Structure formats: structure tokens, C-alpha cells
Amino acid sequence: MAYPTELLTPKDLEVLEEWGRRVRREKANWKFINSLPDKFRKALEYYIETGDIRAASVKFDINIYLLNELRIKAGIPSTI
Fold first, then answer.
1. What is the pTM of this model?
2. How far is it, in rounded angstroms, from Cα 78 to Cα 52?
């Protein structure tokens, strides 16, 4: 059985990734994000651009559960 992403072309994946970035940028509460200390602000910005909360938590040395709570407070949706 193929995974759904195996049925998509690279162009399809690019379109989906850009859609996710756009949705995360539009829905984010930038006033809240910009009020955070640099470490947390940069981690959320990284997440908004990549959609990878695990990579953001590792890169900025933040507990993934804490980062996810900040994501929720910032109104950033969890997208594919």
C-alpha cells in the first residue's frame, strides 16, 4: 500500500508546502509572537516556514510540548 505522499509529484508537494506556509503565516498572531523572547520567537518563525515542530524544538533547544503550547497560543495551525 502506498502512502498518500508517494502518489504526489514533487510539484504537488511544493504546492502543498507553500499552502501550509501561507496558512500558518496568515493565521499566526504576530503581535503575540513578536512579544516573545528571541529564542521562542525564532523557533515559532522557523516552524511557520517549515511546518516541522520537531526540527524547530531541536534547533532552538526548546521542549517540544512547550513549543506546541506556544504554537497554540500564537494561533498557528498545525498543517500538513
1. 0.86
2. 9
Give 33: exposed, middle or buried? Use CB within 10 Å, 0-12, 13-18, 19+.
buried
Residue that the C-alpha cell 501550509 belongs to: 20
Q: How many residues does the chain have?
A: 80
Distance, in Å, from the CA atom of 63 to the CA atom of 29, rounded to the nearest integer, reads: 21
Residues 10-42: pLDDT tens digits? 898 899 899 999 999 999 999 999 999 999 999
Cα–Cα dist 23/61, whole Å: 25
Residues 6 or more apart from 48 whose CB is under 8 A from it?
21, 24, 25, 28, 76
How far is it, in rounded angstroms, from Cα 36 to Cα 43?
10
Q: What is the pLDDT of residues 40-66, one digit of tens each?
A: 999 999 999 999 999 999 999 999 999
Separation of first and last alpha carbons in the chain? 20
